[in-house]
Amino acid sequence: MTRTFAPEALIRKDNFIGGRWVPAIDGACFAVTDPADGSLIAEVADSDIADARAATDAAAAALPAWRETLPKERAEILRRWHALIVANQDALGALISREQGKPLAEGRGEVAYGASYVAWFAEEATRIYGDLIPQQQRGKRMSAVKEPIGIVAAITPWNFPLAMIARKIAPALAAGCTVVGKPAEDTPLTASALVLLAHEAGVPPGVLNLITASRQRTVAAVSDWLRDARVRKITFTGSTAVGKHLARESADTLKKLSLELGGNAPFIVFDDADLEAAAAGLIAAKFRNGGQTCVCPNRVYVQAGVYERFAALLADRVSAMKVGPASDTEVQIGPMINERAVQKIARHVDDAITRGARILTGGTRLPALGPNFFAPTVLVDADSRMELCSEETFGPVVPLFRFNEECEAIEAANATPYGLASYFYTNDMKRIERVSRALEAGLVGINEGAISSEAAPFGGVKESGYGREGSKYGLDDYLSIKYLCQGNLA
């Protein structure tokens, strides 16, 4: 029978290295707090270089045996891990909501989403095929085989503390790699709980290792992985600035990198669109996790003929959204992750108002609820001079930009160094073909706001990074191709 845990029983305060829970080598700790009210949840290990090195040592020791396991054996462990995640969905969802702040329904939804990657890569583990290359010379046979790349360092963000690390660990384990991981300092408890369940599922000691570190110590801890030639791959989700730093600092050992970085997603509403569907799709895409996702629409372009009507429809729906702590089961928008996030949101709104935007709803902090709450906001008369046009707000703010012609919308949508997600709504089939090809993004939602799936490739272009997660392509970055040439056969 699959074991279940109470939420408190999932909390681990130590690092997980070599199959054991151990404190930081120097005994340091840092606080993890509830963003809704600032209350302490736990004091966890604050790791530095020595802890990172210990994790790498454990991963290196475990690699030879793990890479030789049969794919079906790795798949079975992943299936057991998936079953444990699903069985503990309520407890994991509650933990996510407590340390990250998203509503309980979204916390439970994230668990299901993260678990789907584990299930997917359990199946993909048994489908790592090579190729027999057509014979070019008599007496010579050529083939290509795929092998695990080696030790993988997984560095994950705070906004999806379970899903992001699950979709990195699962393909790594499926491919036969060992892992060293570090979750975001704001939300380490969910990652530790996920590792606890992986250990319960039978992942061997040293195959999966996790350290936690405060913001002050993270750079030092991760830098050891960047320099260590034994670590062959870095997989990172986070800001473009940090992604560039990882690429630069790992260059000396020429590591393989998967970088899922910042976004500035456009959302285009053409005048022939179903406005009700477009409003629903925008709300689903924008207000999930309070606007704190990398694929959230950041710039909403609405064609002039339907601009006023769409703005009124959207403002009416957004004004009815309930804001509050995750402990309230009716809440749709929780707290932002911290004070820095709220300050940035407020700065973007103030700058937009100063430059001529108008507030249809929201636009203010909600101190009565707590220090990190911001009202869901709709702004009209936005333009390209405003900070929110060029910077990702990462909060519950929708600015509406007006456009006249299709080419104008496409040009504006692409006028950014980023290219992660984009969305558009239209009922014109020819326009669907034109616009989907013209948009410079790794993900395109066509009359749809919820586009992520374990079966689809996730990743961006331009300064939104490279590499893909999920789908049949998601295993490729954890494998290297070896060419075998056998001669003297004639």
Automatic annotation (TrEMBL):
Its EC number is 1.2.1.16. InterPro entries: Ald_DH/histidinol_DH (IPR016161), Ald_DH_C (IPR016163), Ald_DH_CS_CYS (IPR016160), Ald_DH_CS_GLU (IPR029510), Ald_DH_N (IPR016162), Aldehyde_DH_dom (IPR015590), Aldehyde_DH_Superfamily (IPR050740). Keywords: Oxidoreductase. Gene3D superfamilies: Aldehyde Dehydrogenase, Chain A, domain 1, Aldehyde Dehydrogenase, Chain A, domain 2. Pfam families: Aldedh. It comes from the Bacteria. It is an enzyme of class 1 (oxidoreductase). Residues 21-483 form the Aldehyde dehydrogenase domain. GO terms for biological process: gamma-aminobutyric acid catabolic process. GO terms for molecular function: succinate-semialdehyde dehydrogenase (NAD+) activity. The active site is at 260. Belongs to the aldehyde dehydrogenase family. This is Succinate-semialdehyde dehydrogenase (NADP(+)). It comes from Trinickia soli. The gene is gabD.
